C-alpha cells in the first residue's frame, strides 16, 4: 500500500522550530525586532518597497483597502475566481465588489474584462496572482493609470513570482501577501503589505496598531493586526529558503507538464511570456471525455492528494452573489484540478502522480457526457 502523497506540505523545518523557540525564550514576543528584521529582508525581495507585517493575508488586503481610502460608495473590480478573502477585504470596507472575468489560460483578471467593468464609482483594480502565476499587471497598470485608479495585488499565492523582471509585490500601488501554512513560504499565520508610497506605508503601520505610532497616542482609528515575533522568526527562515523552494516547485511542475503533454482531455498549466510562475498550485484543466470530480475521486483512491481551487466562484456564493455573466470563470470552476507540486515531493512521488493520472485518463476513467 503506497503512502498518500499530500496536496501540500505544511511541516516546519528544524530551523523554523529553533527560530520560534529562540524568540519564545527572548521575551520579545509582539511587534519586536524579528518583525522589523522580516520587513527589512522582505523589502529586498520586492525592489526595496516599504513592507508592513501584519497578522494574516486577509488583514493585509483589508488594511490596504482602508489605507487607500476605499469605502462606502466605491467599487473595486476584481476576479470572482479566487479565495473569499479577496472579496471579503473589499466588502469589509463598505465598498462594492464588481466581478470581472478571467483569462482562461492564466486564470487571472482579464484586462479587457476589467476595462469593461469600470464605472465612475470605481476606486481600484484588484488583481490576483492565482496559483503563483502573476496577473498581466502591465496592461492592468496602464488601465489603472488611465482611469486614475489604484492597482492592488493579491499576491497571497505568488511569493517570488515575476512579471517582466519585477517581482510580485512591486507591480502595483500596493500588494498583500499571506504566510498561511499552505503558502510557498509560511509563518504558521501572518501577512505582509508592500508599497512604494511612504505615506501609505505610514498609514498602514498606524492601522495595524490601533492607529498609534506612539504608545497611548492614537492618530487614526485602527485595529490590532500586529504580527508577533514568533511568526516573524519562522517567516525569516522560510524566506531564506524560498529561492530553493521555488526551484523545486518549478522542477516538479516541468516534470509533470512533460508527462502530461500527450494526454487527451488534460491541459497542463501555462506560463505567459515574460512571467515567472512559482507554482503555488499545479492546476490542470480536465476536459471532455473525462469528468473532473470523478477523476479527483479516483486519484484520491490511489493515494494522490488533489484539490479543486475553486469549485464555486464568488459571484455564485451566497455572500457575494451577483448576476454577472462570467463564462470563463464558470467553466474554469468545473474543470480545474490541483495536483501536488510542493518541494517535499520525491522522484518516486512525481512518477506515481504521472503514472496514475496517465492510466486513469488513458482508460477514460469516469467517462461522462457533457
Can you walk through the features of this model?
This protein has helices at about 15-25, 35-45, 55-65, 85-90, 110-115, 135-145, 200-210, 230-240, 240-260, 290-300, 325-335, 345-360, and strands at about 50-55, 75-80, 95-100, 120-130, 150-155, 160-165, 165, 175-180, 190-195, 210-215, 215-220, 265, 275, 280-285, 335-340. The chain has about 375 residues and is an alpha/beta fold. A seven-stranded mixed beta sheet has the order 1-9-8-5-4-2-3, with helices on both faces. A three-stranded antiparallel beta sheet has the order 7-6-13, with no helix packed on it. Strands 12-14-15 form a three-stranded antiparallel beta sheet. Strand 6 and strand 7 form a beta hairpin. The chain is globular, with a radius of gyration of 21 Å.
Key words describing this protein structure:
370 residues, alpha/beta, seven-stranded mixed sheet, three-stranded antiparallel sheet, 12 helices, 15 strands, globular, disordered C terminus
Q: What is the helix content?
A: 25-40%
Radius of gyration: 21 Å
User: Main sheet, how many strands, which sense, barrel?
Assistant: 7 strands, mixed
Task: Name the structural class.
Answer: alpha/beta
In short:
This protein is an alpha/beta fold.
Amino acid at each position: 500500500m503506497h503512502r498518500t502523497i499530500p496536496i501540500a506540505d505544511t511541516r516546519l523545518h528544524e530551523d523554523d522550530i529553533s527560530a520560534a523557540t529562540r524568540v519564545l525564550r527572548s521575551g520579545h514576543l509582539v511587534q519586536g525586532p524579528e518583525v522589523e528584521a522580516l520587513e527589512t529582508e522582505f523589502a529586498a525581495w520586492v525592489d526595496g518597497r516599504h513592507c508592513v507585517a501584519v497578522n494574516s493575508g486577509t488583514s493585509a488586503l483589508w488594511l490596504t483597502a482602508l489605507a487607500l481610502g476605499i469605502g462606502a460608495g466605491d467599487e473595486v473590480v476584481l476576479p470572482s475566481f479566487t479565495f473569499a478573502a479577496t472579496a471579503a477585504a473589499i466588502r469589509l470596507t463598505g465598498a462594492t465588489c464588481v466581478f470581472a472575468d478571467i483569462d482562461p489560460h492564466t486564470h487571472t483578471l482579464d484586462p479587457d474584462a476589467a476595462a469593461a467593468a469600470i464605472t465612475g464609482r470605481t476606486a481600484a483594480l484588484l488583481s490576483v496572482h492565482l496559483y503563483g502565476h502573476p496577473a498581466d499587471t502591465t496592461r492592468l497598470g496602464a488601465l489603472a493609470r488611465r482611469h486614475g485608479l489604484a492597482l492592488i495585488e493579491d499576491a497571497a499565492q505568488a511569493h517570488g513570482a515575476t512579471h517582466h523582471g519585477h517581482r510580485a509585490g512591486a507591480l502595483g500601488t500596493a500588494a498583500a501577501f499571506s504566510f498561511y501554512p499552505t503558502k510557498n513560504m509560511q509563518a504558521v499565520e501572518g501577512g505582509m503589505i508592500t508599497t512604494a508610497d511612504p505615506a501609505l506605508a505610514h498609514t498602514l503601520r498606524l492601522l495595524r496598531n490601533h492607529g498609534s505610532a506612539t504608545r497611548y497616542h492614537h492618530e487614526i482609528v485602527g485595529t490590532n493586526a500586529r504580527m508577533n515575533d514568533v511568526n516573524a522568526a519562522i517567516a525569516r527562515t522560510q524566506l531564506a529558503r524560498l529561492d530553493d523552494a521555488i526551484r523545486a516547485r518549478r522542477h516538479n511542475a516541468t516534470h509533470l507538464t512533460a508527462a502530461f503533454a500527450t494526454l487527451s482531455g488534460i491541459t497542463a498549466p501555462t506560463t505567459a511570456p515574460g512571467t515567472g510562475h512559482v507554482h503555488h498550485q499545479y492546476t490542470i484543466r480536465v476536459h471532455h471525455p473525462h469528468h473532473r470530480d470523478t477523476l479527483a475521486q479516483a486519484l484520491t483512491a490511489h493515494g494522490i492528494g488533489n484539490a479543486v481551487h475553486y469549485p464555486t466562484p464568488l459571484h455564485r456564493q451566497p455572500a457575494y452573489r451577483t448576476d454577472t455573466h462570467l463564462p470563463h470563470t464558470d467553466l474554469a470552476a468545473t474543470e480545474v484540478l490541483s495536483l501536488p507540486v510542493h518541494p517535499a515531493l520525491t522522484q518516486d512521488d512525481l512518477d506515481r502522480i504521472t503514472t496514475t493520472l496517465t492510466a486513469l485518463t488513458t482508460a477514460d476513467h469516469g467517462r461522462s457526457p457533457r
